[in-house]
Every structure is written in C-alpha cells, then in structure tokens.
Amino acid sequence: MIYSDFQGLKLSRLGFGCMRFAADPSTGEINQETVNEMFDFAIARGVNYFDTAYPYLGGKSEIAMAEALKKYPRKSYYIADKFPGHSLPGPVDNIALFNLSLQKCRTDYFDFYLLHNITEWSVKIYESDEYHIIPDILKMKEEGKIRHLGFSFHSGPALLEEFLTRHEGKFEFVQIQCNYLDWSLQDAKKKYDIITKHGLGVWVMEPCRGGRLAKLSEENSAKLKQLNPEASDASWAFRFLQDLPNIKVVLSGMNAVDQVEDNLNTFEAHQPLTEEERSVLFEIADSMKKGVPCTACRYCCDGCPVQLDIPYLLSVYNDYKYALSAVSGMRLDGLDESQLPSACVQCGQCAHACPQSIDVPKALAELSEMYKNGPHWAEAAKARHKEIRKDLNMD
Ligand code: SF4
Ligand code: SF4
User: Which ligand is the nearest neighbour of the Cα of 303?
Assistant: First the structure.
C-alpha cells in the first residue's frame, strides 16, 4: 500500500468509500457479510481510512461501517464522517445530529469530519447565523471530538477560492471530485491548485466518475488495452491520481471483493504514467464530453446586457450534458433569478465575441430547459428532512 503523510499521520492513499455497499434491492438491507469480507481484505492489505456520511444508504452506511470495524482496535484505523448541512429541514440541534453520528459509528471522536457538499446553494445554509453550523462544528473540534476538519465541494473554482479565503485557518483538507475526465470537465485541476495554494490537503471522491471510467466504451477500453493488456480500466484512473502529490486519500466506493482486490493491486506501488499514457487518457476524456469547449476566457462577458456569468453557466451546462444530476442543479439553485440562464435575452453578442465559436444563446436556452425539467436538490433533500426530523425527535 502507498501511504501519504498528513500532519504526521500515515494515511492509506486508497480510502474505502462507504456509499456503495451492496444491498438487497427490495428491502434496502446492506449485505453485512460482504462488507465485513471487503473490510477484512482491505485492512489486511493496508487500507486504514474509511469514509461515510450521515445520509449514505439511507443512514445505514455509518452502522454497517462500524459493525465491520468493531473487531479492530480503534486506533488502528481512521474514520471520516460528514455533517449533512445540505439536507436539513431547517435549523436543527447540530450537536445532537453530530452526536447521533458518533453513536452510529460506535466512536467518541472522528479522525476526519467534513461539511458535506458545499455548493452555491448549500453554502448559504452552512454560513447562515441562524443555522449556526460552522461555530457548532468548530466547538466539536475544540472539544477533541473532531481531529481534522474539512469539507466536500461540488462547485466551481471561484466559490472554492472565496470560501477558503473567508474561512482561512478553519479547514485542513478539501474533498473534490477529481479524475482524468473532471480534470477539465469540472475544473478539477484549478480546484486542486487552489487547495494546494491554501496549504490544505486534497481528498478525492469519484475517482472513476461513478464507475464510468472503470467501464469504458469498447473503443476507449481498447486504447488502454493496447498500452497494457492486463490493466483494468479503473487502474488507469487511479494511476492518474497517484501522480498528483497533494492528493492524500483517493476514496473508492467499493462493493465487491474482486473490485477491492483490483484497486489494492493498483495501490501496491506508485506507477507513474508516461507522457504517452497521460495523453491517451485525455484523448479518452475528450471523447466522453458532450458539452461546449468553453475556455473561460470571458471575452463574451463584458458585452452581455444582463451581465450573466457565461463561463460559469456553460460549465454547469457541460456537467448537465454529461449527466443530469441534482448536485449540478444545486449550482444553479443558489443563484438569483437575474443570474439564471433564463435571464438571457438571446441578443447573440456573446456568440460573436467567442473565439471558440460557441453558440452561447442556444446552449443557455437548452440549459434553462434542462434545469427547469431536471432533478432538483430541494426535492431530493425532502426525503432526508423526514429522516432527520425523526432521528432528532423533532415531530
Ligand atoms: S445572448 Fe444571452 S448570454 Fe449572450 S450576451 Fe446576450 S443576453 Fe448575454
Ligand atoms: S468567449 Fe467563449 S470561450 Fe470565452 S468564456 Fe465566453 S463562451 Fe467561453
């Protein structure tokens, strides 16, 4: 196992993400035997980092993780959990919710704790005086119940820079979606650089983009097989991340023992990519993108009569074109109506100014429709409101 040094801790670079445990489709019950088997196998080969979150698997992930870890000494592994500020039914007793997670994880402290899913929308809740989340979580840290504090982040580089600047000194690490596709599609390179510049550690989620990079199209997989017929598609995605020195932990949401074994083999030793291998990965990434080639040069912005942040909207458009998701929608949920794509008056100025010849008005009209009809976080979060209210005896 490759290890990272983080403030004197030795963290396995492959972390176990606990959001995809195999469960019975009809009952939702997690197959605990498989979880135990995967954990035993991973721990025997050096994994010492386990990442869960309050809402994962309908609240059952924390419990299944704790069950599988109970036979190991508490100091032999690190656990990470997250505060669900993005799913709250309103201001709640934050400390009671935090303590509930401790209880479900059968521990009295978290080695790592994160504010879950910061975006343009959720940041307003996390920073609200009424919700009082950040001061309460900092108090838990002062009391030693949190050893290291971070946040997971799903939005663009501008908000990341602003949030880190506003909260300088409070956080020690940031978890971002990073892989060879999102390196450009979700600006992961810029985010990696910003986090590194602020002196914080980078944690990675979605290293295989929800499995899409672990099972490429036949054509793309064949390109990788030409480089190494034995290597799995997933191993290339992990090796891309191994080359980035400030990535301390790469979380993989594993759900089968053979997947754990394949990932462990990749993390046995650092195998740097050659220039040729890297360019094949970027070629594959380009073939998977379906959006517009906006370079965020901003040449189109000054002349926009309604002053839209066009590159920002196009980056959400590209996300949506890849896969409609409620988390991408959250990036628009946080904007005022005057900043939404529906505010575009279709004057066409931007299309003339764009050196990439992007038909911006058309893309914004399409984005507006996708946003209107697509999944919305507020809807997805409603189911969690009920769970949180029940867990905190609020009704
Ligand atoms: S077409 Fe829309 S986005 Fe482009 S300049 Fe006009 S109003 Fe702004
Ligand atoms: S001018 Fe074109 S490439 Fe530049 S930010 Fe605007 S849309 Fe993107």
Answer: 1
